[in-house]
Q: What sequence folds into this?
């Protein structure tokens, strides 16, 4: 390649040098042009010869490569080939291979850079298309009530998504990514959708930063769309082995939330606005007797649940229990009321230390201390021998108690006496009661119809069939019979 360029440039160099020499003959020509025509012809001849030799070597190399390929393609008869011929052939092949090595062409940096740029452009176009598609589907907004909180201060994050493309049904999914730098929970998910194909959802999250510095909160936002026919089919196929709604999911990359978290200058146990109260049962107890003390923590802020007002005391047996009355997440943090109940017992007097809890108020931006006083508990010693009971209680008794057996037999006798008396007197009383009712009904009757009704109503028609027949003849056929005579007969018979 260099020889070719030298041949092409040499005439131009000679012409330039000749022109410069003709223009300024008095001046000495430059060194590059201090050659005669004969010398230039010789140099050109040498260049042509070098080019011919180079072309010959290239042709020879190509011929050697072709021969080598043909020999490799031909089948070899191993029986006719001796060891010397194989060795000679291997040597020749090795020489041919060394002479015919083709060096790989190096790719230019421009080609590599162009390929990289092309890949980047394609990737950016793909992201741009996704963003444009998401913007066509819905609009969204991510906001927070504060961007520079303190460590463990409550931060309310609001994400609002509104459907823009009203062609299909739309659902929104928002998931915060987990991190050791913060603690986040879903506070509320409010559906503001008022009509079909107009989805409007508001997500509210509660975040507590756990580290100072810049914290980035990432969210995964997904838009799911489904046609009316897909939802209708899922409702029809609503059984155990049915397939869910077929949706088209679009993942949207939203800008992460950046928080500048301020560090607390002092070590604190609580962050927020809290109050601590204590209630003790008594301050004097006997040995082997226990007393109870209750601490009540109430307020709003961040509390991890590891808070304990008092710690183990030497020589004191301690039992503890935590009772959470309520714990509710709000925009200002956890609103809690929690009781810490302790039962203490000891053989000797002891002191419950004072409680000093360091806290930080995010509203007032100042530090404060929750305090409770110390309590000295006096333990009275007792004689352990008095704790033993020498009397047998209950006292041992004989297996058979004659008095109880007598009482039992008397109760059985009274029971059977009452039962027999009631059984004997129950039948006459019923008869008297029934007779008196029937007799009163007969006496009150003033007409044949009333008398007939009284007999039938008291189920006496079978006993007084003749009288019933006479009364029916009087009522329905207007027969002339003496009503009073029939009534008196019935009164006598009923008695």
A:
């Amino acid at each position: 390649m260099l020889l070719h360029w030298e041949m092409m440039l040499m005439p131009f160099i000679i012409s330039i040098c000749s022109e410069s020499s003709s223009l300024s003959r008095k001046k000495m020509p430059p060194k590059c042009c201090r050659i005669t025509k004969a010398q230039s012809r010789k140099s050109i001849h040498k260049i042509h010869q070098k080019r011919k030799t180079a072309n010959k070597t290239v042709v020879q190399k190509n011929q050697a490569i072709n021969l080598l390929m043909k020999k490799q393609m031909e089948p070899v008869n191993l029986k006719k080939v001796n060891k010397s011929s194989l060795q000679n052939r291997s040597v020749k092949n090795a020489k041919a291979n060394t002479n015919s090595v083709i060096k790989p062409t190096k790719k230019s940096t421009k080609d590599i850079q162009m390929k990289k740029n092309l890949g980047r452009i394609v990737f950016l176009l793909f992201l741009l298309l996704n963003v444009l598609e998401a913007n066509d589907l819905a609009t969204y907004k991510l906001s927070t009530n504060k961007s520079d909180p303190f460590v463990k201060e409550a931060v309310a994050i609001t994400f609002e998504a509104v459907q823009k493309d009203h062609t299909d049904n739309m659902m929104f999914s928002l998931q915060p990514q987990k991190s050791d730098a913060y603690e986040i929970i879903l506070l509320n998910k409010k559906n503001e959708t008022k009509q079909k194909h107009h989805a409007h959802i508001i997500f509210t999250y509660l975040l507590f930063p756990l580290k100072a510095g810049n914290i980035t909160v990432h969210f995964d936002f997904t838009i799911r769309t489904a046609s009316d026919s897909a939802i209708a089919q899922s409702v029809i196929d609503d059984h155990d082995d049915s397939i869910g709604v077929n949706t088209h999911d679009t993942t949207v990359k939203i800008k992460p939330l950046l928080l500048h978290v301020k560090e607390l200058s002092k070590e604190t146990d609580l962050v927020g606005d809290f109050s601590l109260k204590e209630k003790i049962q008594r301050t004097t107890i006997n040995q082997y007797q226990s007393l109870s003390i209750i601490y009540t923590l109430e307020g709003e802020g961040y509390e991890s649940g590891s808070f304990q007002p008092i710690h183990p005391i030497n020589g004191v047996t301690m039992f503890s229990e935590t009772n959470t009355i309520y714990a509710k997440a709000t925009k200002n943090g956890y609103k809690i009321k929690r009781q810490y109940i302790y039962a203490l017992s000891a053989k000797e007097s002891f002191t419950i230390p004072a409680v000093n809890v360091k806290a930080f108020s995010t509203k007032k931006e100042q530090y404060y201390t929750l305090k409770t006083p110390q309590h000295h508990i006096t333990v009275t010693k007792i004689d352990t021998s008095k704790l033993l009971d020498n009397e047998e209680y209950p006292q041992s008794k004989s297996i058979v108690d004659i008095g109880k057996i007598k009482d039992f037999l008397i109760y059985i006798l009274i029971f059977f006496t009452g039962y027999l008396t009631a059984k004997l007197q129950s039948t006459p009383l019923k008869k008297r009661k029934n007779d008196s009712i029937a007799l009163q009904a007969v006496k009150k009757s003033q007409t044949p119809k009333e008398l007939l009704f009284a007999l039938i109503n008291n189920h006496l028609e079978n006993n007084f069939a003749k009288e019933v027949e006479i009364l029916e003849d009087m009522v329905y056929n207007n027969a002339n019979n003496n009503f009073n005579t029939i009534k008196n007969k019935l009164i006598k018979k009923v008695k």
Observations:
- Residues 77 and 474 are 148 Å apart (CA to CA).
- The chain has a mean pLDDT of 76.
- Residues 402-444 form the longest helix (43 residues).
